[in-house]
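Our working data are protein records whose layout never changes between entries. The record below serves as our worked example for the rest of this section:
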Amino acid sequence: MITLNWQDERVRTFLPYVAGAFAGLLAGFVVATSNFALVALLGAMACGSVIALYPVAIFWVTLLVSFVLSGLAQLYYPQLELIRWAVLPLGFLLLGYIFVQSLAANPNLEVRRQPNALVFLLCTFLIVNMLPWFLNPLSFSDFFVGFKGYFQMWGFMFGMCLLAWDQKMMRDTLPKAIFVLALIQIPFALHQYVFIAPLREHVLEKGVVPLDIVTGTFGGQKLGGGANAVLAVFLLAVWACVLGVWKKQRLNTFWLVLISAGLLLPVMINEAKVSIIYAVVVFFVIFRKGVFQNIGRFLTVTALVFAMVAALFSTYISHAPAGAASSWTGLITYTIEYNINKQEETDGKLTRGASINLWFDRHGDMAHTLLGYGVGTSRVEKHNHLARAIGIKEPQDTGVGKLGAIAVLWESGLIGFLIISSAFGVAFYYACQLEKTYSRDGWLSGIFVGLQGAIVILYISMWHKNFFILHIGYQAIYTTLFGFLIYWRKAKVPDFEEADEQEELIRLPK
């Protein structure tokens, strides 16, 4: 009997040629089909096999796909919109590296060994969302679609906060990369405003708002809805961090005004009226204390926020439906009437206020009230499990799960809703504590000041849209934020007495 010795030098030399030959045949076959999607998939597989070897590459590719490529593909090249599925295996790879790291503990990694409430709450929310599967007649495919919709970015989040990343990358490179991603939104938003939005005017009677398509890189459908609210919350979250760094006197006023004008331009033109609320909330959260320590800086940012709100009101009035609003008070009255007082919108779906009342009226028995009907049931189009349970024929056409918070109540129950709400509360507490811990580092503490405002508007956004349960761009925002907070919460506090100047990297003592 002849056995193959895999250690033989000739065998090891021969195998790469065999693999290369098969790979060449496969590539030739795929290219011969002239199917761009298949060719792109083959290229992605080839690149992915290399990327998988480097956790840092996985990290940055996941950010790029979730913040940029998935949304751009959905709007400009729908054939490739499933590129968003790449974040799931990439997240699993990062989880695998966490396991490998635990087996080979890094002796140079110094962390504070203390319980992390935010990690505990997130893990509990993950487990709680598995329980309704046993209580409701959901197929595995329906459960998987809903589960993926909620947790597709969580592997990245846990990998971000639990792996031993270089501290310089987390302190300097990541925040600057997020800022660059924010700047990238500007040219895309302008292109969508000038070229794509006018093409949607003819479908206005179908309930399509032309300026909803001004979404930057967060995606939409040319003749359908768009994630303009995700663009608004992202840019205002980044703007909050810019304000925080400015408050810590690490950015001069000239650059603050210039950066604010650039970041807020897409918000001015994308018809997300909730941006007015976000801007005011960011202002009050960031400057809720220490107002009288520097009156000049406070008055400067007050004037900036007032000018922004005035500009937002003016642009929204100019783009309001005919006869809907001609003044600030008229716009406010119209918005409240349209979203809360009315039972249905023009397309027959429930208003936001009516969808909240629906849950209180029909939340079901004790088990479903506490644990929900299962992830994805408020948006699964074929089987309508939630519809059968609460007596509504078409929950998608009615808008049952149109708010993230209410969708969580329907799908994860009161327990899941309280857990995720507590997670946002703990994240806000962590941001406040980390601001104090790193108070000697103006750059980092300024970012934590801004993240306090970002956390609040992210939670408010759960009561505005349902992006929390399904939109990869929105999930990329809050998972990156949570991962960043957990990373710095568990990092060993530096010895500031021995640290270099604040512009330099603050290194941990060995």
Summary: The chain has 21 helices and no strands. The CA atoms of residues 398 and 463 lie 17 Å apart. The two ends are 57 Å apart (CA to CA). Residues 404-437 form the longest helix (34 residues).
